[in-house]
Design goal:
Layout lengths: L3 H6 L20 H10 L4 H4 L2 H11 L3 H11 L1 H16 L2 H11 L5 H22 L9 H28 L14 H5 L3 H7 L10 H12 L1
Length: about 220
C-alpha cells in the first residue's frame, strides 16, 4: 500500500532503498521504509507496538495508568517520546491509508489493513489517556493549527498519488501505447509533445513518474 517499490526505482536519495535489489523486507534501509509509510499518512513503524505495550501494562493492573501518567508528568524523556508519537498521530489519517489499501491492495489482504487501522485507533486512544489529553496536540495549539491548515493540500496530494500508483501498477497498462495521451499531443510540435518524447524508454508512462515525485515531495 506504500510507494516503497517505486521510490526504490527512482533517482531520489543518496543510496539505494534496499541493500540488495533482489532482497525482501529484511534488506530495506530504515529511512526509505519510514518514508514510504509517511507517504500514506499511516506512519506504521512509528506507533506499532506502543498500543500493545500500554495495553499489556494496563491489563496487569489498571492502576498502572496512574503510574504512566505520573511518568509523563515527571520524566522528561518519557514525556518527549509520548509527545513525538502524539505529533505523528496528529499528522496521520487512517482514512487516507484506507484509500491506498482500497486502490492498491489485493482483497485477501484487506482484512489486515482493517486490523491495523483498528490498532491505530486503539493506540491513539491509549496514548491520549497516558498524556491526559482529550484531543491530539492539546498542549501545542500552534502546531495543531498549522497541521490543520495544510491538511487540505496534503490530502489532495495523497489522493493524486494513490491513483497514480494504481495506474503505474496496472499490468494491463501499456506504456508504449500511451492510451492516456491524445493523438493531437503526440503528433504536434508543441512543447508538451517534446516533453513526452524526452524519455521514451521509461518503464513509467510519460508524466506519471513526475507526478509521483511531486506528490512524494509535497507530502514529505
Amino acid at each position: 500500500a506504500t510507494p516503497e517499490t517505486e521510490y526504490g526505482r527512482m533517482n531520489i536519495g543518496s543510496r539505494p532503498s534496499k541493500r540488495k535489489p533482489s532482497g525482501g523486507i529484511e534488506s530495506l534501509r530504515a529511512i526509505p521504509w519510514i518514508f514510504a509509510w509517511t507517504q500514506t499518512r499511516f506512519h506504521l513503524p512509528v506507533w506499532l507496538g506502543f498500543g500493545a505495550a500500554f495495553k499489556h501494562i494496563l491489563q496487569k493492573d489498571i492502576r498502572n495508568l496512574h503510574m504512566l501518567q505520573e511518568m509523563y508528568n515527571e520524566w522528561p524523556f518519557f514525556r518527549v517520546t509520548i509527545d513525538l508519537v502524539e505529533m505523528v498521530f496528529a499528522k496521520g489519517n487512517p482514512g487516507i491509508a484506507a484509500l491506498y489499501d482500497k486502490l492498491l491492495v489485493s482483497e485477501d489482504l484487506q482484512p489486515l489493513g482493517e486490523k491495523l487501522r483498528a490498532n491505530y485507533e486503539e493506540t491513539q486512544k491509549l496514548l491520549l489517556q497516558v498524556a491526559g489529553h482529550r484531543d491530539l496536540l492539546e498542549g501545542d495549539p500552534y502546531l495543531k493549527q498549522r497541521l490543520r491548515l495544510r491538511d487540505a493540500y496534503i490530502t489532495t496530494l495523497n489522493v493524486c498519488q494513490a491513483y497514480t500508483l494504481k495506474r503505474i501498477r496496472d499490468p494491463d497498462y501499456h506504456v508504449a501505447l500511451r492510451p492516456h495521451l491524445s493523438k493531437e499531443i503526440m503528433d504536434s510540435s508543441k512543447p508538451a509533445a517534446e516533453l513526452v518524447k524526452l524519455n521514451p524508454a521509461s518503464e513509467y508512462a510519460p508524466g506519471l513518474e513526475d507526478t509521483l515525485i511531486l506528490t512524494m515531495k509535497g507530502i514529505a
